[in-house]
Design a protein that fits this description.
By secondary structure, this protein is α+β, with helices and mostly antiparallel strands. The chain has one helix and three strands, in the order αβββ. Strands 1-2-3 form a three-stranded antiparallel β-sheet, with no helix packed on it.
């Protein structure tokens, strides 16, 4: 490699390093909490007399089968398979 080619490569590398030094990920230095939405707070009385169905899965070591769970007043009352 000639001296002239070496200086061209060195100058290009240095200018690229200076050019991209200010580039960073979006949001650097900004607290993450500003972008989070607060979760609603549920009071235990909110669950009284409520009937809900949830789809979930059994743990993988037990087969990982799909399940549908009926929840009444915050307690699981019925568990069915989810085809």
């Amino acid at each position: 490699m000639r001296r002239r080619d070496f200086l061209k490569v060195a100058a290009t590398s240095a200018s690229g390093a200076v050019l991209f030094a200010g580039c960073g990920r979006i949001g650097d230095g900004v607290p993450e909490s500003e972008f989070k939405i607060a979760q609603p707070v549920f009071h235990p009385n909110d669950w009284l007399h409520l009937d809900a169905w949830f789809a979930t899965a059994a743990p993988p070591d037990q087969g990982g089968y799909g399940l549908i769970v009926r929840v009444f007043e915050g307690r699981a009352k019925k568990v069915d398979g989810n085809p």
